[in-house]
């Protein structure tokens, strides 16, 4: 791990592409990849941003673009026009608090858990706000039933709520206005990158 090349990635489930590629490149680029769960709703509210799919023409473009990116990055995305409404109508705060509880207790599960949540949400179209689906996600990521139930009890605790708020506020402090947001700490200076189409610029900044 090189502290001068520390990259903090604020994760939600909307964009898997950046997560996938950063995980693929973390050893090639010799970066210290750190996952920082943050709540997209809080970021959008604080910055006055709106979901891009609310603009019909942009939603039409995004539908095509996500399919192109899925093919390019070889990521299993299944998406239709109806999925945009499903996304806007699904509460992901419980899932984000569960991920936060994992980050606080067993961070080694953060990457597989984030992947599994994303696959179930985008590829299998499951409602990840439901406790039974959170249990299934945790089991697939390798967590025992006993540990998972303890974590589910944690998600309503002030400690977890405050931790998620802190990481969300930290993302906003770095200039985040949406997701995915990546902060690359290089030569003592933070560099914010938004979107999964900024990987080439990220590589350029860190000399790769």
Automatic annotation (TrEMBL):
Q: What class of enzyme is it?
A: transferase
Protein name per its UniProtKB record: Glutathione S-transferase kappa 1
Recorded GO MF terms: glutathione peroxidase activity; glutathione transferase activity
DSBA-like thioredoxin domain: which residues?
16-205
Q: Which family does the entry's similarity section mention? A: Belongs to the GST superfamily. Kappa family.
Q: Does the keyword Transferase apply?
A: yes
**SUPFAM superfamilies reported for this sequence:** Thioredoxin-like (SSF52833)
Sorted alphabetically, the Gene Ontology cellular component annotations on this record are: mitochondrion; peroxisome
Q: Which Gene3D superfamilies match?
A: Glutaredoxin (3.40.30.10)
Determine the domain of life of the protein's source: Eukaryota
The alphabetical list of record keywords is: Transferase
Q: Which GO terms describe its biological process?
A: glutathione metabolic process
Catalytic activity reads: RX + glutathione = an S-substituted glutathione + a halide anion + H(+)
What Enzyme Commission number(s) appear in the record?
2.5.1.18
Database matches in Pfam families: DSBA (PF01323)
């Amino acid at each position: 791990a090189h502290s001068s090349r520390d990259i903090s990635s604020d994760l939600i489930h909307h964009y898997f592409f950046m997560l996938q590629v950063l995980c693929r490149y973390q050893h090639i680029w010799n970066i210290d990849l750190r996952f920082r769960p943050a709540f997209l709703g809080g970021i959008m509210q604080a910055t006055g941003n709106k979901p891009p799919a609310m603009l019909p023409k942009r939603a039409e473009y995004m539908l095509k673009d996500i399919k192109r990116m899925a093919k390019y990055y070889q990521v299993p995305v299944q998406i239709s026009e109806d999925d945009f409404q499903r996304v806007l109508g699904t509460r992901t705060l419980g899932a984000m608090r569960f991920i936060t509880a994992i980050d606080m207790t067993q961070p080694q599960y953060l990457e597989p858990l984030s992947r599994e949540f994303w696959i179930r949400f985008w590829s299998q179209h499951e409602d990840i706000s439901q406790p039974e689906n959170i249990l299934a996600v945790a089991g697939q990521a390798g967590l025992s039933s006993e540990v998972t139930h303890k974590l589910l009890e944690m998600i309503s605790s002030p400690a977890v709520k405050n931790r998620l708020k802190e990481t969300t506020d930290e993302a906003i402090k770095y200039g985040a206005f949406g997701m995915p947001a990546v902060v690359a700490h290089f030569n003592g200076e933070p560099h914010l990158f938004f979107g999964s189409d900024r990987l080439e610029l990220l590589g350029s900044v860190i000399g790769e």
